[in-house]
Amino acid sequence: MSGTAEHNKRVVSMLVEAISRGDLAAFGELYTAEAAAKARQWVRPFLESFPDVRMDVVHMVADGDTVVARLRCSGTHLGVWRGHAPTGRRFERVDEVYFFTFLNGQVSDSWGIEDNLKRFRQLGLALP
Fold this sequence. Notes:
single chain; alpha+beta; Nuclear Transport Factor 2, Chain: A; four-stranded antiparallel beta sheet; 37% helix
């Protein structure tokens, strides 16, 4: 695997660790400036809803300027999320898959899918 692919995978790992620490300031180094601003707007409300969020990398694949990561996410619902008052309940091991596109060694775009139905069910916000 090329050095670029390895670098990009390390950046995604650092990004996952930063989210788990609630460290949005780290986005400035990991994302391009425009992408960092967008990522903070998306991640900040999630961290406010689930301040103890923990994300783990299950698997990563790099191809050219793209990294695909399968992640697992856990956290406790302590703030309003998608209009739902805090339940105090915890969700565990919710699967997520994200595609990260790189430009000059930084994430320039990302797109993903999350198993929010599993998250809603574990939080008691959806029927089992």
